[in-house]
Amino acid sequence: MTRVRxxxxxxxxxxxxxxxxxxxxxxxxxxxxxxGGAGPGERDxxxxxxxxxxxxxxxxxxxxxxxxxxxxxxxGDTATTYKDxxxxxxxxxxGTLFREPGKDxxxxxxxxxxxxxxxxxxxxxxxxxxVTSEKRQLVSEKLLYSPASRLLESGAPVRIHTTGSIxxxxxxxxxxxxxxxxxxxxxxxxxxxxxxxxxxxxxxxDGNRSDFDLxxxxxxxxxxxWAQKEDSKVEADKIAFNRxxxxxxxxxxxxxxxxxxxxxAGHLEYWVDREAGIATNGPKAVQNTPGTTNETESRTQLTxxxxxxxxxxxxxxxxxxxxxxxxxxxxxxxxxxxAIDAHHVTHLYKDRRALFKGxxxxxxxxxxxxxxxxxxxxxxxxxxxxGRAEAWDYDELHTKKNHISGEKIVHDLKTGxxxxxxxxxxxxxEEPGGRGQQPxxxxxxxxxxxxxxxxxGQ
Length: 458
Fold this sequence. Notes:
Strand content: over 45%
CATH architecture of one domain: Sandwich
Largest sheet: 31 strands, mixed
Helix content: under 10%
Shape: rod-shaped
Number of strands: 31
CATH superfamily of one domain: Lipopolysaccharide (LPS) transport protein A like domain
Structural class: mainly beta
């Protein structure tokens, strides 16, 4: 056994780096002796560069930090270096990057190149590089390792496999054990959730840059970020995904797109397993309804201080400054139809029903109403207003007229008729030649109509 020891002092008392080259078995020292017993002089004349070349077989390399703690152990079939050079190439290379006991990192590559740079001793691994730590594996064609900082940097696209997740990127900088790091370039993350083993319906997260913590299952994506689970897609300036909680947090121009709804907000939290979420900072939900032979194409827009959705059930709950607006398509343009304001709403948008609570106010082109609560059946166009209910017509100048109130008011938005049920208080403007209220009369074209039903029920 032959051992060549190279001792380099760097930075005075800052420390030492010890490099030990151990020839384990069957070494060949190929220096100056050619085939047929040619002497050094003759060999140097044929190839002067080879006169400084040193080749060895079955080589082991150990690297130590300034405290003489072993950081790296590499083995190879052959090693090549040059006289008076600290560089060395090991082919093929396998070895260990030492960390905590029981948590060492294993590496293999077609070639390992040891050299000294500005950051001290470094190793460059090239060709089918594989790094394995616990249940995490990295694959790349080029990887740089610094024993002093214990950081890995890729010089080629990388792929990381871990339990339940696959990470792809153009560039990587991470801890040696691949627990934490940064991905850059075209970043793609596919994850099935904590403990997931199937990728049939993964959460897909794409962007330009992502911090990751594989131990905690955290990914922070930025730069044209988007995430998708089946038919639900979230886009935002920044997206954070917690794999354990199965939750996406989107900030900045956040948009959730589903087949039946589009929800936008400044801030969005979305649980991918439950298909539920909470939107704040100016949330807005938009639902489009295609036109049919009986109904014009329409768009419903719901805004509030906060919107909470159960998208599996098709339910949106709005709290604070609630406003539901409906628009209809007319000659290619969206025209306002009506608006409903309240403090709170439960909107069953799949069934097209809604319950409004707290200072409910309805505004349409030719009718208005207020009440404590209101139930809205959108498909039928029926609105039931309960609790201190009041309603009125608007004339051509949008001036209130025919003001009435009662226990319950039923308004038909399709026909423009209103029906008051229970005790009625009215304040009608009189028609020329007429007196008092005139129930059940035929409405004029284009006008709303208020109809009374004294003491009745619905």
